[in-house]
Structure formats: structure tokens, C-alpha cells
Design a protein that fits this description.
Blueprint (H helix, E strand, L loop, with lengths): L2 H11 L15 H18 L4 H12 L5 H9 L8 H25 L4 E9 L5 E9 L6 E10 L2 E9 L2 E2 H31 L8
Antiparallel strand pairs: 1-2, 2-3, 3-4, 4-5
């Protein structure tokens, strides 16, 4: 397992447990994560024998939680500006599918994690907040976790995840950059698409 996969797994483990927080505002980042996480766990438990259905239904519930367009643009970095609109859409579609299938896989296999939510702190602007917590699993070292939210016209959206202070987006930017330098933007799209297809994931069209 790569370090990046480990970081992302730790981040995803926190989502069902964030329901322990009791935010006053039902539209707050904590409340959004709480509701979506509960629904996704119910989807997973109700469709144990049908991973494709799990992914499809979970995708529908997880989409409102994250700004996949911004996440993809940040992960692709400087190459995003030179990609065509069609390439940008394809990248977002495949990146979203990758995130969701990883999310479902982790939640399916790690239901016992405990998370100590430390609270929410302001982001770099008045429209950003970071939910800080610590992930605890039996026999493993505790992991510090940050979920970055931005208050958009569509409400609060996750745009990055950091484990032990290391950004998931920044880490993928390095990987994606290497692929693009070698095979171009289409090469990255092809690689992500192949990985999703191998995992039996049906990518969304928008």
C-alpha cells in the first residue's frame, strides 16, 4: 500500500465517526459529513453482495459533499490550464470515480475506527473552514486529519484532505504531473480510466 493510499484511507475512516459531532448549524461542514456518511454506510451494508450498486448509489450521495471539479484542478495543477474543456471534464469524471471507489472500499472494510473531533478552525479566507480530528485504530498510531471546506454558492464543499499535515491533493499533483510529462493529459485520463474499469467502476458522465 502506498503512503498516499494509506493517508486517504485514514481520511475516509473518519467520515462515519464525525457523526459524533453535534454542530449547531445543520448546514455546517460537520453536519454535512454526518448525514452523508450515515447514508453511505447504510448503502454499503444493504448492498454487500453488489459492489457496482454500492459504488453507484454511494456516488450519488457523496457528490454533494465534495467539489470534485476544484479537487481535480488542484490535483492536476498547472496542466489543468492547458487541458481542453473536454479533457478537463474527462479528468474530473475519472478522478471523481477514483475517489468514490476508494471511499466505498475503505468504509466497507474499516467500520471500527474511532475519531476524536477536535473542532473547526478558520481557513485562509472567511469562506473556508477546516475540520480537525484524530483517527484512532486498535494497534495503530493515531493519525491527525484535516478536512478542508469552502463555502460555495452551492454550500459547503470539501476541496482537500490532509493527513499529518500532508495534502492529499498536493501528493496526487506530483504523481499526475509525472504521468502528464510522459504521456500527456490524455495519458493520465487513460490511466485513471483503466484503473476505474479494472475495479468495475462505471464512471459518471457529469
Amino acid at each position: 500500500m502506498t503512503r498516499i493510499t494509506h493517508w486517504f484511507m485514514a481520511a475516509l475512516l473518519c467520515l462515519p465517526v464525525l457523526a459524533l459531532a453535534v454542530p449547531a448549524d445543520p448546514a455546517s461542514p460537520e453536519a454535512i459529513v454526518r448525514g452523508v456518511s450515515k447514508d453511505v454506510l447504510e448503502i454499503i451494508n444493504a448492498n454487500v453482495q453488489d459492489p457496482v450498486k454500492q459504488q453507484t448509489m454511494a456516488d450519488a450521495r457523496l457528490v454533494p459533499l465534495a467539489d470534485f471539479g476544484r479537487m481535480t484542478a488542484l490535483a492536476v495543477g498547472k496542466y489543468w490550464r492547458t487541458a481542453t474543456p473536454e479533457q478537463q471534464q474527462a479528468l474530473t469524471t475519472e478522478f471523481r470515480a477514483m475517489l468514490v471507489r476508494t471511499w466505498v472500499a475503505v468504509l466497507s472494510n474499516h467500520k471500527g475506527a474511532q475519531v476524536d473531533v477536535k473542532g473547526t478552525r478558520p481557513g485562509e479566507t472567511a469562506q473556508e473552514q477546516t475540520v480537525h480530528s484524530v483517527v484512532n485504530q486498535p494497534g495503530q498510531q493515531a493519525i491527525a486529519l484535516d478536512l478542508d471546506f469552502e463555502n460555495t454558492a452551492a454550500g459547503w464543499k470539501v476541496y482537500d484532505i490532509s493527513i499529518e499535515g500532508i495534502s492529499f491533493i498536493n501528493s496526487h499533483r506530483n504523481q499526475f504531473g509525472s504521468v502528464i510529462q510522459k504521456d500527456g493529459v490524455d495519458g493520465l485520463i487513460k490511466q485513471l480510466s483503466a484503473a476505474n474499469a479494472k475495479a468495475g467502476v462505471r464512471t459518471a458522465t457529469k
